[in-house]
Every structure is written in structure tokens, then in C-alpha cells.
Amino acid sequence: MNYDLPFIPERSEKPRESGLTMVMDKGLSLRETEDFLSVAGDYTDMVKLGFGTSLVIPHLKEKLKIYNDAGIKTYFGGTLFEAFVIRNRFDDLLKYLAEFGMKYAEVSDGSMFIPHDEKLEYIRQLSKEVTVLSEVGTKSDDIPLSDSVWVDYMKTELEAGSWKVIGEARESGTIGLYHKDGSANRSLIDDIITNVDIDKVIWEAPNKGQQVWFIKLLGANVNVGNIAPLDVISLETLRLGLRGDTFYRFLPEDLQPNN
Amino acid sequence: MNYDLPFIPERSEKPRESGLTMVMDKGLSLRETEDFLSVAGDYTDMVKLGFGTSLVIPHLKEKLKIYNDAGIKTYFGGTLFEAFVIRNRFDDLLKYLAEFGMKYAEVSDGSMFIPHDEKLEYIRQLSKEVTVLSEVGTKSDDIPLSDSVWVDYMKTELEAGSWKVIGEARESGTIGLYHKDGSANRSLIDDIITNVDIDKVIWEAPNKGQQVWFIKLLGANVNVGNIAPLDVISLETLRLGLRGDTFYRFLPEDLQPNN
Amino acid sequence: MNYDLPFIPERSEKPRESGLTMVMDKGLSLRETEDFLSVAGDYTDMVKLGFGTSLVIPHLKEKLKIYNDAGIKTYFGGTLFEAFVIRNRFDDLLKYLAEFGMKYAEVSDGSMFIPHDEKLEYIRQLSKEVTVLSEVGTKSDDIPLSDSVWVDYMKTELEAGSWKVIGEARESGTIGLYHKDGSANRSLIDDIITNVDIDKVIWEAPNKGQQVWFIKLLGANVNVGNIAPLDVISLETLRLGLRGDTFYRFLPEDLQPNN
To answer: Per the domain annotation, does A102 fall within a domain?
Structure first.
């Protein structure tokens, strides 16, 4: 902090187990990656190379090195995992991860149907090689999961070896944890909070209103994901009560509006 | 201009008293700041380090130096002023401004209630140290101000020492000067124009439609604010009638569509 | 590709005649231009300096050189053509193009009315100096063109010398090819596909949903335009079936969901 103020919530420090910020990189150049980290590196814990972008971008090894050197955990988006699995190429996925020295990987079933037993088996297999994050929720609203199934999936995936479970929202923030208009699915989220260790859950929250909603509910050190690189500093001010939306969240009783 | 065309409105030149563009910086890196200025420096008059970002970003002194060297006025967002005031730390705010050599500051009451007499007193106090911009309008629509109160606040804040008064719209452009759908509150804006020196007013206009609306109403040299760094060049083309939306705005009668 | 996967559609290679990606540059700095190309240069065929930005930005020659050196075709936005024409300065336009060594130019009538015979004549004239792209559709929905007029305009403009014809959508993607809500005007698009060589058509598709819609309809090597620089990598994953939205588009029958 460039100046000390009282009543600023204490933030966890890197390497964090809670208060995580997971950023989605959709194709930054090497220099843009350096720029991003020069400002927001201390506030960024993980970077997901979104969906299949890792297959397409040039200079992948150099990019991963920049993130690694800055102490940022990197992994490829879950859609890439699914792109290998739908082609019956799980072994190739392991080779791809090894070739690029990946230490983390995401398991998801957002774009294709995978029987949950099979998904758990993928988590077990991958956990032998890398640290696994697994995502719950689909990218389509054709067959929504019931709240109790969400909770069950999160718990069994953690038991199968996932380091964290991620609540799906897409990049748009209009599905899974949220209703179509982007507002939070309160009953689902309450069920998760009641039944799953919240330090183990990363909430995809791409839009400011969603970040505000989770910070108001769970405090400065909530885990959020799918954050755009340019939004990390803004998110940090929300976490600290330094933006209008969370201005009163961390102030003591006697400074609240109606006192 | 890279080529001379007739019927391009004459723009004011730096240092401008009207035709101001105020940009909101939410956390650019040093290199991104240089990049932004290398393109849009001549068209940018002021940069606000939005809300509490100045407390959070690294390299604050270096960033301020880049802006100062380019002849850009810088100040910290009004929410930061309020974050000090709600904690009864106005003296600390003065120290913070002095420590970073700030020559401008914003006074606002968008996130907290400040009796207007008290706000005027803050403007008077701060004016002794720095040049003050003050913002009128709240970030919440719980208790909207009447049009006549807006006008009264703007006039008295200018009398108390504000260099310019800013009409609130948030970063989203959906409050204060605008209705919830982002369209302009015409009767409020008419009242302000009729009663306040418009060179003294900066209209927050984060969205293109709002920039177009004000340029059509008040011409190329209207003061606008909360512009995103990447939008400054686009705004400049709107000011000059070089984009579809303002294509006919500055053309003479005989070149208008129905002639 | 950083790893070989089966069932990835084959993409055309530069210099492409189909599968084109046309990007809109609204004022990137020189370094941002380099950054953009370092990631997405191979996937970018043309860059339009949007509307009148070419008149306003500094370092225009240097920017054009960066694009040229990377094998990217550049041209100035159609609104600039119209800004010269409305002022009866077509000769000056030729001088401006020559002064900056432009090899491509856009002819459009989105902001002003030009009798179609006259537009064809501009295409013929300009074709003697540069390669012409012409745009069909207006920026206003006051007088929408009928589907048959769209088709007729596209055919006659190609006959008059246009290298490609562009379907208008604006930067917002809410007009011309699309309804006001951004969804595709299916009957218009069907009429164009049936009657015009689709390799000759560039579809403005600024929003992700629109890019997905055209890729699903016309495949990986559809020509799309008005793409934001930061979206080119994401577009490329959509073209290759490496993002959720087009995940199944290029997979064989036996890998489809209901098999």
C-alpha cells in the first residue's frame, strides 16, 4: 500500500491458499504479459491460458517462463482437456503437459458429457502427474445440474484429488453460478458454502457486479476466477473496500451509514 | 492532422480550459502508460487514477512522473478522498497528496453522505494546497438529487474554489447524468447548461453514445471525462466529425443531407 | 500448432483469398501494434484503420510500415472515403492515399447517400490506383436496403472492380447483417450466400456470438471483419473448434454427442 489507512482488510500473501485471483489469458503477447505482471503480479495467483489458446499462440514456452519466474501458477483451459478426451487422446494430453513442463491442469466437462465416475478417474490419473483443478457446471443450460448434484460433484472431486474446484460461469458470466442476466444463483451458492470448504472453491466471476457480490458475501479473501488481466487492480480495490461498491464492507459499526 | 480537410472544427490546444478530455486510468503498467501517451498524449488533458487504485499499484511515483513529463494533469479518484474522510483522516490525505507531489485533487460525495456545507469546507481547505475538481451526484440512486440541487451544488462548489465541477456517471455511465439505460437525462443537463458556465463543467461520458450525445449538443470542444485510455483517439474523431455518428455535425448547410 | 490433434480443420495460409480475418485498429500505439502482431500476425490478413483515425494518429507512416513488414494489408476506413467525398475532395483522397503509399482502399456509403451508379464509378476510378474493398449496407436503419438490393449491390460492385465486398455491421454489430439485438439476419445472409461468391464476401462480425454463428454456418475459413486486435487468437480457436462454442463443429459423426 502506498499509504496506510485503518480498516483495510488484511489480505493473504503469496503463495496463497485462500484469497486467490485466477486470471484468464486469452492471448497476451510476451510484452503484454510482462506489463500485466509488472502491475498486478503480486495480486495474481494463477493464470489460465483460456480454452484452446495454448495450442494456437506462438512463444508458448517463453510465456510460461515469464509466468513461472513471477511465481504464477499456470494451466491450460478445461476445454483443451476435453478436446483431447473427446478424441480419445488422454495419453497425448499427458505428453503435451510434459512437453511444456506444466505443473497444473484443469479437468472439466463443460463442453462434452463425461460420466462423473469417469471424470473422477481422470482427476485421479492426472493427480499423479500434476496438481489438478476441476471445474463443475456445464457451458450449456440444456441440462442444468441440481444444487445437490453440484455439491456432490465438488466434494467427490476434491476427494478424488482436486486441489481446488472451480464453479463454472464461462467468460460471459451468464451460466452455472449465475442466472442468464448475470445475477448470482443464491440458493446454489448457499448450498455450496454450507457443504464445501470454501477455501477449496474458486468462483468464476468475470463481471464486476459478480466480484462485488462475492466480496460482500465472503470477504476480502474470497477465491475468484476468470478475471481479465486489466481488471486485477480494480478487483484488488474491491477486495480492500477502496471502490464505491464495497466502500462500507470493512468499516466498523460506528462508521456505517446510519450511525 | 495527417491531411488537411475543410470543415473540420477547430480544437482547443493544450493547456486547454475547454475541450478537455479526462481519462480514467484503472491500473496501466508504466509501459502501457507510455504507449497510451505516445498515441493520445496530445488529446489527453487530465488523468484520474480511478477510485483507490493509487493506493494499490506499484511504481506510483514513476507513473506520475510519466504523466507529468507529458504535460498531463493527474489526480486521485474521489472515492479515495472519501476513504480518508470516512475514517476521519483528512490530515492524512493532505500528507499523502504532499508525499506524491500531487497538484490536483478531487472532492466528491458519491459513496458517503457529506453535508454540503462540509463538502464546501473541504473544497476551501484543499484549494489552499492543490487545484480542486469536485464531483456532483451520487453513485447510488437511492436518493436522487433534484435538478435544482445539482445546479446549486455546482455553483456553490465553484464559488468555494473548485477549478472544475464534474457530473457523476460512474464508470458504467448509468447514473447521475444518465438514466439507468445509459441515455442522457436531458432536463437535468439543460438546467446545468442554462445555469452554470459550461467550460467549468466536465461531463462523465464513458460510453460512445454519451460522447456522441454531448458533442452533438455542445460541439467539438465539450469537456468529457471517465474516458478509457483506448477510446481517446476514437473520441477525437467524434469531436472532429470523422466518425459516422457525428459525420454531419460540423458540415455547412449546403452539404447537409436534405440539400 | 503447439501439438497435433486430429479433426482440426485445415486453415488457409497467407496470403489468403478465403478464411480472411480483417481487424479494426482504432488507435494502437506502435509498440501495441508490434505486440499484437507478435501474437496474431499469422492469423491477421488485413487491418483497417477505423473510420477517420488515420487522420488523427501520430506516427502513421511508422505504423503502416510495421503492418507492411508483417505482410498485413492495410487500408483506411470507409468513413474517411466518405469524409473526402462529401466535401467534393475525391482528388485529395487520391493524393492522401498516394502520400502514404496505400495499396488498398475502402469505398462505402454508410454515413452519406451516394447514388449507386456514382458509387460504382468511384470503385472503377479507385481500382486504377489501388485494390478496392467496398462495403454494402448503411450505418443507419432509417432506410434499410431490401435483401435483393444487397445482393445486387454486391454483385455490381464486384463487377465494377471491388476485390472483396464487406457486409456492414458497424463496430457494435447491431445493424446491416444483424438485427438490433445483434442476432443474425438469416434471410438476408442466405440470399447473399446463394447469389454471391462467398469467398468474395467479408462479414463484419465484431461480437463473439456473430463469429460463432458464421463459423458454424460457413466453416473454419469464412471471411470475417471488424475483429478487435485482442480477439484474433480467440477467433482462431473458434475457427479450429478449440473453444466450447464450436467444440463439435469439425468432429466426425461418431464423435458427435448423440452417438
So the answer is: yes
pLDDT greater than 70 at residue A59: yes
What domain range is A125 assigned to? 21-255
Contacts of C239 (CB under 8 A, 6+ apart): C9, C11, C19, C215, C220, C221, C222, C246
Q: Are C196 and C190 in contact (CB under 8 A)?
A: no
Reported as a pLDDT band with limits 50, 70 and 90, residue A138 is confident
pLDDT reported for residue B172:
78
In a domain, A6, yes or no: no
Model pLDDT for residues B142-159, shown as the tens digit of each residue: 677 888 999 999 999 999
| Half-sphere exposure (Cβ direction) of C96: Cα atoms closer than 13 Å | 24
Query: C147-160 and C186-195 helices cross at what angle (nearest 10)?
Result: 40
CA atoms lying within 13 Å on the CB side of residue A136: 30
Query: What is the C-alpha separation between C23 and C44, in angstroms, rounded?
Result: 7
Q: CB neighbours (10 Å) of residue A70?
A: 17
Tell me whether C111 touches chain B (CB under 8 Å).
yes
Interval B184-235: pLDDT, tens: 999 999 999 999 999 999 999 999 999 999 999 999 999 999 999 999 999 9
CB A51 within 8 A of CB A77: yes
pTM: 0.96
pLDDT value of residue A13: 93
Cross-strand pairs, C75: C48
A-interface mutation test, from C23, C34, C39, most A Cβ less than 10 A away: C39
Q: How many domains is chain B partitioned into structurally?
A: 1
Contact partners for chain C, using 3 or more CB pairs closer than 8 A, are: A, B
Neighbours of A112 (CB within 10 A): 20
- How far does B58 lie from chain C, in Å, by closest CA? 22
Q: Is residue A3 part of a domain?
A: no
Cβ–Cβ gap C36/A29 under 8 Å: yes
Interchain CB contact of A143 with B (< 8 Å): no
- The closest alpha carbon to B102, from B149, B65, B134, belongs to B65
**Cβ-based neighbours of A203, under 8 Å, separated by 6 or more:** A166, A167, A169, A177, A189, A210, A214, A222, A223, A224, A225
CATH of the domain at B235: 3.20.20.70
Digit-coded pLDDT (tens) for C138-180: 767 667 788 899 999 999 999 999 999 999 887 777 788 888 8
Contact B116, A38 (CB under 8 A): no
In the predicted model, what is the mean pLDDT of residues C115-139? 95
Residue at grid coordinates 497444473? A104
- C217 domain residue, yes or no: yes
Q: What is the ipTM of this complex?
A: 0.95
Chain B CB contacts of A66 under 8 Å are none
SS (H, E, C) chain B: CCCCCCCCCCCCCCCCCCCCEEEEECCCCHHHHHHHHHHHHHHCCEEEECCCHHHHCCCHHHHHHHHHHCCCEEEECHHHHHHHHHCCCHHHHHHHHHHCCCCEEEECCCCCCCCHHHHHHHHHHHHCCCEEEEEECCCCCCCCCCHHHHHHHHHHHHHHCEEEEEECCCCCCCCCCECCCCCECHHHHHHHHHHCCHHHEEEECCCHHHHHHHHHHHCCCCCEEEECHHHHHHHHHHHCCCCHHHCCCCCCHHHCCCC
Query: What pLDDT is stored for residue B142 in this prediction?
Result: 67
List C-alpha distances in Å: B245 to B255, C111, C128: 16, 8, 31
Residue with C-alpha cell 458427435?
C256
Supply the pLDDT for residue A142: 67
Within 8 A of C30 by CB-CB distance, chain B residues are 38
Number of helices (H) and strands (E), helices first, in chain C? 10, 8
Q: Point out the residue among B1, B232, B247 whose CB comes nearest to the CB of C79.
A: B247
Q: Which residue in chain B is spatially nearest to C138 when comparing CA positions?
A: B244
Residue type, C99: E
